[in-house]
Design goal:
The chain has 427 residues and is of the alpha/beta class. It has 2 domains: 179 residues, FAD/NAD(P)-binding domain; 151 residues, FAD/NAD(P)-binding domain. Helix content is 34%, strand content 26%. It contains 13 helices and 25 strands. The strands form 7 sheets. It has an 8-stranded mixed beta sheet with strand order 7-6-5-2-1-8-21-20. It has a 5-stranded parallel beta sheet with strand order 10-17-11-12-13. A 3-stranded antiparallel beta sheet has the order 14-15-16. Helix 1 runs parallel beside helix 10. The chain is globular, with a radius of gyration of 22 Å. The structure holds flavin-adenine dinucleotide. The site of flavin-adenine dinucleotide has 34 residues, from helix 1, strand 2, helix 2, strand 5 and helix 7.
Length: 427
């Protein structure tokens, strides 16, 4: 059995087959399983990249029937039952499968706006988070070195375009970085004067939550000093500006901002198009693959698509859907290899929604239960620690959170350039 992608979906499919008589090959283009829900804390210097990612090999070290390949799946031949993979050194080879689970997830979508893609950083990968961190930290450093307020202003203005929880979490964390962690460390500038513009086309923040929780979140954001602009679209981003267009009046405003962050949408990774073409199925919203009730691809009962890349009954692109989907595909395959012919339908159990707004303040909604403030924050923390992979990461994250609460410092502020050319381009 071959699994493509070691995110929440792929990892859970592999683990479900731990005790089955199958040999599992897990292919990922990276070496680590990434806990995307805490990417924004890595981007804003609270957590290290090591705290939110765990080596895939380490996670599967005790699973004797599993092996791991670091390579990118680029094509598939469903008749020959082979997947083409490209290794790190760009050499290509083919891998055979009897059953295939595709869990390759999504990537940031710029909706064809190349200009925006060039200047606004998305937040989907570790590279994104580290680029955002570099941009944020470098902006404060640049501002400190400039002589007058007019020159500093664009460096200290941060646009955040989006609509989902990540967008709010990122904006809140940038303000907390400026007002709590950096506040006493600069001499020429006052980091608290930095502006964070939260830009969204809808009429309230966090529309996936109930209106009352959304209002509470808005009040907390106002208290933090985040400037929320609703009913607007970001229509252009350049090196030092962000263009905002009001949806109703079409009036355009250009704000001088050296940093614009982009969390407004996702689309399927390129492998989805190869898969759709090879098996002759449609790509639905954002390029996700249409699947049948047991999460297999129509006409190909041996190929399953789970997680964000699967378009199943409009389920949201969240970790729990991917985890449950991965386990389901693993269970169906385990049944088939042990002689069963049953192919049960996938039923998603919705465990709720949570978003971090500020320190000691998060919102959580599960069934009729709605939590906010400290209680919501505590529940949010417990859930995230429970789902973080590896005991070491869990312990380390709790200790870092506690230290940050007590001291207001953020230690993960080192920035790297890779090489000098990158350094010049990326600030
Ligand atoms: C910033 C952010 C915050 C989020 N916050 C939350 C939250 O608070 N709660 C929540 O429930 N969900 C949250 N999500 C969504 C959640 O992370 C996703 O729904 C979940 O990761 C989807 O799991 P997946 O297995 O489908 O894909 P992913 O976790 O994205 O994993 C896909 C894997 O496939 C690999 N891959 C991609 N293409 C290839 C290829 N061609 N060949 C080989 N490997 C490949 C990638 O390297 C990756 O490891 C958040 C997402 C982001 C980006």
């Amino acid at each position: 059995m071959v699994i493509i992608g070691a995110g929440f979906g792929g990892l859970n499919a592999a683990r479900r087959l731990r005790n089955s008589d199958v040999s599992v090959t897990l292919i990922d283009r990276g070496t680590s399983h990434l806990f995307q829900p805490l990417l924004y804390q890595c981007a804003t210097g609270l957590l290290s990249e090591g705290s939110i990612s765990t080596p895939i090999r380490h996670l599967l070290r005790r699973q004797r029937n599993a092996e791991v390949y670091c390579a990118e799946a680029t094509d598939i031949d469903p008749d020959a039952k082979t997947v083409t993979i490209t290794r790190i050194d760009s050499t290509v080879c083919e891998i055979d499968y009897d059953y295939l689970v595709v869990a390759a997830g999504m990537r940031t979508a710029y909706h064809g706006n190349e200009h925006v893609a060039q200047h606004a950083i998305g937040m989907k990968t570790l590279d994104d988070a580290l680029s955002i961190r570099r941009k944020l930290i470098a902006s404060f450093e640049m501002a400190e070195s400039l002589p007058d307020a007019e020159q500093r202003a664009p460096w200290l203005t941060f646009g955040v375009a989006g609509g989902g929880p990540t967008w709010v979490e990122l904006a809140g964390q940038i303000r907390e970085l400026a007002t709590l962690a950096l506040e006493r460390e600069f001499r020429s500038i006052d980091p608290r004067e930095s502006r964070v513009l939260l830009l969204h086309g809808g009429d309230r923040v966090l529309p996936s939550f109930s209106p009352s929780l959304s209002q509470r979140a808005q009040r907390t954001l106002d208290d933090l000093g985040v400037e929320t602009r609703l009913g607007v679209h970001v229509t252009d981003v350049t090196e030092d500006t962000v263009e905002i267009t009001a949806k109703a009046s079409k009036e355009k405003t250009t704000v001088a901002a050296r940093t614009t962050l982009w969390t407004t949408g996702v689309e399927a990774v390129p492998f989805a198009a190869s898969l759709a073409k090879a098996v002759g199925v449609d790509q639905e919203r954002g390029g996700a693959i249409a699947v049948t009730d047991d999460l297999s691809v129509p006409g190909h009962p041996e190929i399953f698509v789970v997680g964000d890349m699967s378009a199943y009954r409009n389920l949201p692109g969240v970790a729990e859907v991917a985890m449950q989907g991965g386990r389901h595909a693993g269970a169906v395959i385990a049944g088939l290899v042990s002689g069963s012919t049953a192919r049960p339908a996938f039923h998603y159990r919705d465990l709720g929604n949570a978003a971090y707004i500020a320190r000691k303040n998060a919102i959580l909604e599960t069934g009729p239960i709605r939590l906010s403030g400290r209680l919501g924050w505590f529940a949010w923390g417990v859930i995230h620690i429970a789902f973080l992979a590896g005991i070491r990461n869990r312990t380390g994250t709790v200790v870092t959170w506690a230290a940050t609460l007590l001291t207001n410092t953020r230690r993960e502020r080192a920035i790297t350039y890779g090489d000098l050319q990158t350094a010049k381009r990326s600030i």
